[in-house]
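Hi all, posting the design record for the shared folder.

TITLE: backbone redesign
STEP: 1 of 1
STRUCTURE INPUT:
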């Protein structure tokens, strides 16, 4: 099976597959996905339980979501990539600019107090800012793998802080979310994602 991502150096994957090299040498993609799912479910409980008034949803927090969730499985958990990646016609942020681009995003997020002030704001206003930053991180695609899941968890923790349930994506077809993500990467357009997030926000 060919890699789903286009990379110059494919040593990141088990030879001839799209299965990432892992600590347990698992070469069954279904088994690996199941383990990733279990680790993610466990991480949701842990990080939700850790949220407090002083929690900062900054770059370190974002990296730690990835690291602490997947470090038992992957050596590269929590580490930003330094090489270029593409998927189909979507080219993510160049590896050389990941660090500086990430810093810029999180500096902007800091100016908005990490979106911690939206508990009593209109849901539409909150969804717009959530979609903007989610689009930015989708286009950044900073980690080797598991970007989408960690990015969604990151914003689920922010909405939880503001008194909302985790964003409900269950009414959205996977294809719709993928298309919305592609619009973020190729056109810097977060309107479709904003609608998805708005429909999934509930107190």
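Okay, here is what came back for every position:
SEQUENCE:
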């Amino acid at each position: 099976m060919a890699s789903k991502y286009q990379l110059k150096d494919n040593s990141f994957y088990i030879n001839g597959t799209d299965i990432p090299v892992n600590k347990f040498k698992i070469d069954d993609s279904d088994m690996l996905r199941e383990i990733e799912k279990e680790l993610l479910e466990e991480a949701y409980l842990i990080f939700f339980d850790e949220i407090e008034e002083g929690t900062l949803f900054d770059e370190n927090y974002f990296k730690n979501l990835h690291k602490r969730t997947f470090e038992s499985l992957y050596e590269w958990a929590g580490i930003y990539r330094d090489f270029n990646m593409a998927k189909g016609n979507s080219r993510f942020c160049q590896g050389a600019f990941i660090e500086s681009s990430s810093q810029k995003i999180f500096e902007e997020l800091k100016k908005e107090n990490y979106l911690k002030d939206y508990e009593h704001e209109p849901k539409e206003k909150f969804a717009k800012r959530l979609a903007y930053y989610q689009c930015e991180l989708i286009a950044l695609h900073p980690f080797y793998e598991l970007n989408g899941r960690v990015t969604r968890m990151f914003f689920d923790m922010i909405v939880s802080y503001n008194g909302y349930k985790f964003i409900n994506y269950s009414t959205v077809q996977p294809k719709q979310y993928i298309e919305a993500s592609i619009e973020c990467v190729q056109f810097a357009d977060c309107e479709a994602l904003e609608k998805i997030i708005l429909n999934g926000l509930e107190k």
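COMMENT: The two ends are 43 Å apart (CA to CA).
Let me know if anyone wants the other runs.
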